[in-house]
């Protein structure tokens, strides 16, 4: 005979209690004087014999009752010794992704899976355990149950192939071993899965939990649309099925309500909405809906920071006025310097440097420009008509740009705009087919494929390589390009490439980089914090620019502050959970090959016990305990 819970056999120590009571005769008798005691002596002798018999029988009954109850709770069973001695490893994967938060009949699928494990987990085995974000090897049933109580949802979500890989990595390879893998999940559909590819050295048991039919609303995405006059917050709300239901939506900055409105789906599954933002920044933005289905997608956090001024330095051979009109505004911190009066320290402070029609490139300037580019800053180059080819090509070689040959003096027109180029992306409301083509008296030949503007012969006028933008013709006194609307668009958007490109938010679990401009000492680092949580992300500093790298450090959505060593908040970032877990598409695991399916873990546990030829005996011991209780009652009542 074996026991599921042998530690409860310590309860047999309770047998000492009735024995002690019996031996020490806890009753006390008071002696009373009586004149005629002859008759009483006979009665006492008779009574004592009867009393001793009754007490011994009662003691035996009580001992048997306690023994049967202790054995019943220890859950005894008989099993085939060959099966018991067989080597086996059992792995259990518990799906703790957010899709399991959907309601079943009475509770969430996740809580239902945990409850079944707590109630029906076979007690005579050790287990390997895995979830989307955790794994444990060779865990005792009692430790398994204790761990289950603290198990919560995870922002990490693995597909089925990754689940098998993770779970099977816990097993130790042994010959003639029985490998069991139990997966408790809703088996959400992400991609097709071929069950014939399963490793046949494992026995697979799938328990699929199905939610009740319901409509889930979700805030899916948000982005910012900007123009010179207005900022507009665009976002999309979706429903899992067509509905006519209206949904209240609120927009907050921290605890301040900025707006509240209602979305009517009108038998649609998606609804787009725009909200005009009046202020320059929303530090702790939040879009929120009220939906009782899934809660993790009811909030979308975002952060809009007022951009810093972009420092633009123009280095010219002689003063140029047309660039003043582009950069002399509140968006830029603009400075123009003649090459003869240049302070080289100004280059290190600038975000954008434009070499404006210089005749030659001094070596000191070349070195400063190389350092400027090494810090991921923006460079613009406009050649003059009569350049020192050697000095220019030395700079181009250092920057990995194609060198120039002699100037081409044939007049040519600019005829092509690359609307998909980063400089012109989202600038034009429609693609212009005919416009007043600017013309140039001369140009330099270049065939860089990254063309923003091109001549009629297909060669590039404005080309780019990373953060370097090169104009291949002189503009001043060589063309009417200054009178074209393209001159403002080209130079304005060129400088905007130096602006830190930040998303409104990032997704937890995805690799994300954030660039911040700040000055730190060599021994200082930046931290990310939310309430009591704080950690130091990977970071790489180049001059005043620091790149922060976020991988899988975060688990909780919300706003996080970037702080320095003095705990000054430099920036606010927003992180949200991935929305793929709110898709109501599921695999039909009943059609899988080499897999057994169950409607609950309880059913699996019963089948497992039967497969091990286990015969439970606890019911018999409960019955014996009841029989001995009845016997004790009869003894106490009928034996005087």
Task: Give a brief outline of the structure.
The chain has 640 residues and is α/β, with parallel strands linked by helices.
User: Might you state the CATH topology name of the largest domain?
Assistant: Rossmann fold
Task: Report the average pLDDT across residues.
Answer: 86
Q: CATH superfamily of the largest domain, please?
A: Class I glutamine amidotransferase (GATase) domain
Radius of gyration equals 40 Å
Head-to-tail CA distance between termini: 40 Å
What form results from the Cα inertia axes? elongated
Q: Characterize the main sheet.
A: 9 strands, mixed
Into how many domains do the coordinates divide? 5
> Which strand order does the major sheet show?
16-15-17-18-23-22-21-19-20
User: How big a fraction of the residues is strand?
Assistant: 25-35%
Question: What is the oligomer described by this structure?
Answer: single chain
Report the helical percentage: 10-25%
User: Could you say what the CATH architecture of the largest domain is?
Assistant: 3-Layer(aba) Sandwich
Number of strands: 33
Q: Give the class from helix and strand content and strand pairing.
A: alpha/beta
Low-confidence stretches: none
CATH class of the largest domain: Alpha Beta
